[in-house]
Amino acid sequence: MLYRKITTYIEDYLKSNDDRILIIEGARQVGKSFVIREVGKRIYTHFVEINFAEDDEGPQLFKNLHTVEDFYLTLSSVAGDKLEDYDNTLVFLDEIQHYPQYLTLLKFLRQDHRYRYIASGSLLGITLRKTTSIPVGSILRKRMYQLDFEEWLMANGYGKEAIAFLRSSYEKSESLSEEQHNYVLSLFKRYLLVGGLPFAVNTYLETHNIAKVREVQNAIMDLYKEDATKYENESKKKLHILRIYDMISSQMENKKKRVVVKQIQDKEKDRFDNYTEEFEYLVSSGIAMEVNAISNPRYPLAESLHKNLLKLYLNDVGFLTSRLYNLSIKAVMETETSVNLGSVYENVVAQELCAHSYPLFYYDNKAKGEVDFIIDDTQHFTIKPIEVKSGKDYQVHSALNSFTSDPNYKIEQGIVLSNSREVVKKGKVLYLPIYYVMFIQKPDAATVNEDELIF
């Protein structure tokens, strides 16, 4: 069974006195239902699962219910022998976005306190956009992603002690030995091919066959496209969503990697504002990651958001290598190759930073150049620029130099991620091996001095 870090979060929630209803959201096929089912059955003596997607395609028993009384009556008709009381009964409402009225009903189910509830949603952002009454104080939302690189290492037999050693090396700014570096980098490159979706990971672990992995990835991408046709009513918007989604990989191969709006419908004077809902669907559904431009690179970055200059990355790097290289593994695995892996490396870095709850930004200026990613450095109330390099010229980065040397930005440190083994600091620039991106994480309450939390 694949190790998932979110398991601990769900366990802690179910063992707590927090009576808000937890909703695990995220893209399809990231493993939400599996983890909830595994934890729920282990903690509760009575576990009831209602899948609204299956109900919608089958008997539709729960489809037109709008009151707590009607819900209880129907629930008891399908699972009456498993229902006891709040302390030992967990009801799992899976794919809650299929029946949006239940998002409103959660408030009353919580107040009634008859059973404990947990829910999951694959397109929750889209559903909430169309829901008139959101029970803000009654729900707790947590986004789940596919396996990040740390979880991938563990899936491949890399133990917790070995990962603790990697983390310690990162924190001390120490390089790994040549042998350790080559091994971790090899696993990292395999991650680029397979990605982190559990079905694809398990297929790889069972077969080590790239063709089988690609079959899984293609099927999931088709599923994402099918979802777009279900949850958008306007046929024109559906076509635009599919077109933009298919464009992402080719846009990433461009120098600027930005979305070129005029290519969506081949209209020279097309406007970004014409596709606001389409972009929102792709990001809210979790099948694409957005990196927004900023007009002023200062902390906090969200204050200078420039919505009309957007980069989109695929939510899983395995999808990108599937689209770009299909069955060829040499393009990724071999060190000496003519293939530029810049877009692939950027995608996986975006994926990791996203999984670590960082909003993603970039900055592009004619005078200063472009920096791949900029994140808030909350510890120093400034920003942290990150450059991603896949080639041997990783020490060439004029835009990063310009950023770190400008006293107006008060930058403590810039980061360059590359294939190079050695951890080196030159001025304000820290050079790290690409796999250390798994440790670039936000400080949480557990790592912050307790005095800083009191006000």
Secondary-structure map with pairings?
Elements lengths: L5 H10 L5 E5 L6 H12 L2 E6 H6 L10 H12 L9 E6 L6 H12 L3 E6 L2 H6 L9 E5 L5 H7 L4 H12 L6 H17 L3 H10 L2 H22 L3 H18 L23 H9 L3 E7 L10 E10 L2 H9 L4 H4 L8 H14 L5 E5 L3 E9 L4 E7 L9 H8 L8 E5 L5 E3 L2 E5 L22
Parallel strand pairs: 1-4, 1-5, 2-3, 3-4, 6-8, 10-11, 11-13
Antiparallel strand pairs: 6-7, 8-9, 9-10, 12-13
Describe the structure using short key phrases:
455 residues; 41% helix; 13 strands
Portion in beta strands: 15-25%
Total number of helices: 17
Major beta-sheet overview: 8 strands, mixed
Radius of gyration, in Å, reads: 23 Å
Summarize the structure.
This protein has helices at 6-15, 32-43, 52-57, 68-79, 101-112, 124-129, 149-155, 160-171, 178-194, 198-207, 210-231, 235-252, 276-284, 317-325, 330-333, 342-355, 398-405; strands at residues 21-25, 46-51, 89-94, 116-121, 139-143, 288-294, 305-314, 361-365, 369-377, 382-388, 414-418, 424-426, 429-433. The protein is an alpha/beta fold.
Give a verbal description of the structure:
This protein has 455 residues and is an alpha/beta fold. It is built from 17 helices and 13 strands. It has helices spanning 6-15, 32-43, 52-57, 68-79, 101-112, 124-129, 149-155, 160-171, 178-194, 198-207, 210-231, 235-252, 276-284, 317-325, 330-333, 342-355, 398-405; strands at residues 21-25, 46-51, 89-94, 116-121, 139-143, 288-294, 305-314, 361-365, 369-377, 382-388, 414-418, 424-426, 429-433. It has an eight-stranded mixed β-sheet with strand order 7-6-8-9-10-11-13-12. Strands 2-3-4-1-5 form a five-stranded parallel β-sheet, with helices on both faces. Helix 1 (6-15) crosses helix 2, helix 10 runs antiparallel to helix 11 (210-231) and helix 12 (235-252) packs across helix 13. It is globular and about 65 Å long.
